[in-house]
Amino acid sequence: MVSQTVELLKKEIPLEQESVVLAEDTVNGLVLVDIINGFCTVGAGNLAPREPNRQIRGMINESARLARVFCEKKLPVMAFLDSHHPNKPEDPYPTHCIIGSDESNLVPELRWLENEANVTIRRKDCFDGYVGSIEEDGTNVFVDWVKKNKITTLVVVGVCTDICVLDFVCSTMSAKNRGFLNPLENVVVYSRGCATFDIPLEVATDTKGAWAHPQEFMHHVGLYMAKERGAKIAREVLIGAPEKV
């Protein structure tokens, strides 16, 4: 039934994806959103998957691969890590990713990023990485990062497609349109580098406080809404001209 609904959804709101080639004569930046144990590692916390998940595994693999490319080329990378204080809940979700816990750390496949000179790590205490980058004095770490590196195209990957990724993209697009992120021109969401969680209806029905969240359905909706905000949705991301066959 769910697969039929997803197919109907894709038919009613088709999502055009493109092959995005990043020019090497401009600065391209990569943002990784919440690819941490608490959301991606089986059994790591209240919001972690309960069993291996193909979409999440694919997201980790593609994000790690793309991060390697960016680091090899010494391009700027920013990684947002969901990190909450125990006395500041994030409704409507249960306690998760407490700062200082392993839940709030990068997944093992990405821990190497912590030792890369071109990588900026930002721990945030809210859904939206843009808002979570605001300091007490009103400055914004993400905005400063874009401006300092003169980033013209931003590639976004991570979890969850329809929550933290989408919130960050929406805020970034609004800020870009207001001229707050010059010289940023394009925001690209790499679909295979994103994932969300899966709670089937039958599980939600039998679980107090849970609500249905079909993975493929919500992943598609998240990407569609990001495109509605003006982001490009990429089925593949290449740096430099693709090789001629």
UniProtKB/TrEMBL annotation:
GO molecular-function term, one example from the UniProt record: nicotinamidase activity
Biological source species: Vigna angularis var. angularis
Start and end residues of each Isochorismatase-like domain: 30-198
InterPro entries given in the database record: Isochorismatase-like_dom, Isochorismatase-like_sf, NIC1
Organism taxonomic ancestry: Eukaryota, Viridiplantae, Streptophyta, Embryophyta, Tracheophyta
Top-level taxon in the UniProt lineage: Eukaryota
Family: Belongs to the isochorismatase family.
UniProt record, GO biological process: pyridine nucleotide salvage
One Pfam family here: Isochorismatase
Name of the featured protein: Isochorismatase-like domain-containing protein
